[in-house]
Amino acid sequence: MRHLLALLLCLSQPAAAQDVAGEFDYYVLSLSWSPNWCAIEGDARGSSQCDTGAGFGWILHGLWPQYEQGWPTNCRSRFRNPTRAQTADMADIMGTSGLAWYQWNKHGVCAGLDSADYYALARVAYEKVTRPEVLRQVNRDITLPANLIEAAFLRANPDLAADQITITCKDNAIQEARICLTRDLAFRDCGSDVIRDCTLQSAAFAPIR
Cα dist. 124→84, 117, 130, 158, 168 in Å? Predict the structure, then answer.
């Protein structure tokens, strides 16, 4: 009887609202520092992104549809999933085809675009941002203040403002640079839930392999 009442209670709860694909306010372009991701979890996974000589620095983690507060999830796309060829074509900037597939399923389906257009837009967004060349010249494991990463991006991108980028950390290491873009891919201020800069003064930063 108790189990029956619990089941009836669950059935009486309203279904979770489903976000509508294409209805969002702006994009967050997420760039991940590949050497740190590899040191923290990629090596343990045996990811080809972490192979010696792969040469990955800032990879495209994703292009994420965003609300002014929060972000869409659980969108139902009317478009087909990407082909293996499409995801493989993104590995040069995303590290692996698997990440390209994952990002489509989690974020791309909420963009209101088919997979080809979503990947094309993500590539344009990635290429819009100049990744600081000085960071590719690091040749040993170092620690640095996280705000130096932001300063390097601002220096390399004169049209980018401090309120339009945030640096994140994970496990005491630099994780990502997240840059906010309009739906037309112009730089714009980030929402209050995105601007959460890492404040570490000694964040780990690994060199490119």
Answer: 21, 10, 12, 18, 23
Banded pLDDT at 191 (limits 50, 70, 90): very high
pLDDT at 3: 52
Query: Helices 97-106 and 115-128 meet at what angle, rounded to 10?
Result: 110
Rounded to an integer, what is the distance from CA 128 to the centroid of its chain? 15
Q: What stretches of the chain show up as alpha helix (H) in DSSP?
A: 2-12, 34-37, 43-45, 84-89, 91-94, 97-106, 115-128, 133-136, 146-156
Model pLDDT for residues 72-82, shown as the tens digit of each residue? 987 988 999 99
Tokens read off for 50: 């972490």
Tens digits of residue pLDDT in 73-109: 879 889 999 999 999 999 999 999 999 999 999 999 9
Q: Which residues contact 17 (CB under 8 A, 6 or more apart)?
A: none
What b/e readout covers 160-182, taking b as 16+ CB neighbours within 10 angstroms?
beeebbbbbbbeebbbbbbbbbe
3-state secondary structure of 48: helix
| CA–CA dist 155, 161 (Å, integer) | 10
3-state SS of the chain: helix, strand, coil percent to 5?
A: 40, 20, 45
